[in-house]
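User: Here's a protein and a ligand (adenosine-5'-triphosphate). What would the complex look like?
Assistant: Let me lay out the input and then the predicted complex.
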Amino acid sequence: MLRLHDITAGYGDTTVLRDVSLPVPRRSVVALLGANGAGKTTTLRVASGLLAPGSGTLHLDGTDLTGRRPHVLARRGVCHVPEGRGIFPNLSVRDNIAVHAAGADTGEAVDRAVSAFPVLGEKLGQQAGALSGGQQQMLALSRAYVTEPSYVLLDEVSMGLAPVVVDEIFEFLGRLAEQGCALVLVEQYVAKALELADYVFLLARGRLEFAGEPGELDAAQLMEKYMGTHT
Ligand SMILES: Nc1ncnc2c1ncn2[C@@H]1O[C@H](COP(=O)(O)OP(=O)(O)OP(=O)(O)O)[C@@H](O)[C@H]1O
C-alpha cells in the first residue's frame, strides 16, 4: 500500500493540504477528485516525494519514506506522470524512452513503449516536441509501462486532448490496472475515472470531504458541485 496519513503540506507560508489521509492499496484504482485549486496536484506531489509534507507520514508497503527524495520513491515503484506531459521536447522519441528507462535496457523499453502505443513506433527518430499533443501524452504515459511501477500517479493526463485520444488513453489505463498496477487518477473526465475506480476521494479546499466507493457518491450532485461540464 502507498499510504499518505494526516498530511499537512503547502508552499512557503501557504498551507494547501490539511490532515489528508489517502490509502492506495496495491492493485487498486483511486480517483482523486475536487474543484480547481482543491489540492489534487499537491497531494500527488507529496505522494511521489516531490513535496515534503509539513506534517504527516508517507509509507510505501510498510516502509516510512516521509521526506525522502522523488528518485527513492521512483526506484521503489512509484511513477508520477505530471500535469503538462513532462517530456523532453528536444530529444527524440527513442531518447525520451531511454530517459524513462533510467539505465534499463533501452531496446526492451522501446519495445514495451511501442507495444503500449504502436504509433510511437513510427516516430522513434522524431523530436518529441514535433509530435501531436496526443502522441506527446502517449510518450509521457509510456513511462508507466516501461519502468513497470507498482503505483502510477496520473495528473490530468487527458487534458486538452481530442475525445478519440482520450478514449485511447483510458483504454491504456484500464490495461495498466488489469496488469495489477495501482493507479491514482486526477482527472477532469470524472465519469471515466469513476468507471475505473475502486475508491474515490474528494478534496475540497485542501481537506478530504468524501472517501469511499464510487457507488456511494451521488454522481450528478458531484458533477454539478465540483466538476463543470466534462463528464
Ligand atoms: N508552487 C506553488 N506555490 C504556491 N502556491 C501554489 C503552488 N502550486 C499550487 N499552489 C496553490 O495551491 C493550491 C492547490 O493547488 P493544486 O494545484 O494542488 O490544486 P488542484 O486541485 O490540482 O487544482 P487544478 O485542478 O487547478 O490543477 C492552489 O490554491 C494553488 O494556487
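Summary: Residues 87-148 form one domain.
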